[in-house]
Amino acid sequence: MKTAHACGLSTKEDRATLACHVISRSENILRQPQWQRALNLVRERAFALRDVLEAAGIALVSPAAQHE
User: Fold this and answer.
1) Which pLDDT band, with edges at 50, 70 and 90, does 65 fall under?
2) For the whole prediction, is pTM greater than 0.85?
3) Do residues 56 and 37 make contact, with C-beta atoms less than 8 angstroms apart?
4) How many CB atoms lie within 10 A of CB 62?
5) Number of H helices and number of E strands within the chain?
6) Average per-residue pLDDT in the chain?
7) Which of 3, 14, 27, 59 is the right S-S partner for 49, CB 3.0 to 4.6 Å?
């Protein structure tokens, strides 16, 4: 996913997490301030995107992702 690489996400797990959110909510989510903060934490501190989003209260919408 080009968007994930453009956001600086290097792990497969982070790219998959981003893909689930983009597919379920549209790419416009990346323009929201909380997403920018989350992506910065992932890039700068090597936190997992899923953990950052959960801590920020941003849950996955995808039913498949909720049953992992």
Assistant:
1) very low
2) no
3) yes
4) 16
5) 5, 0
6) 80
7) 14
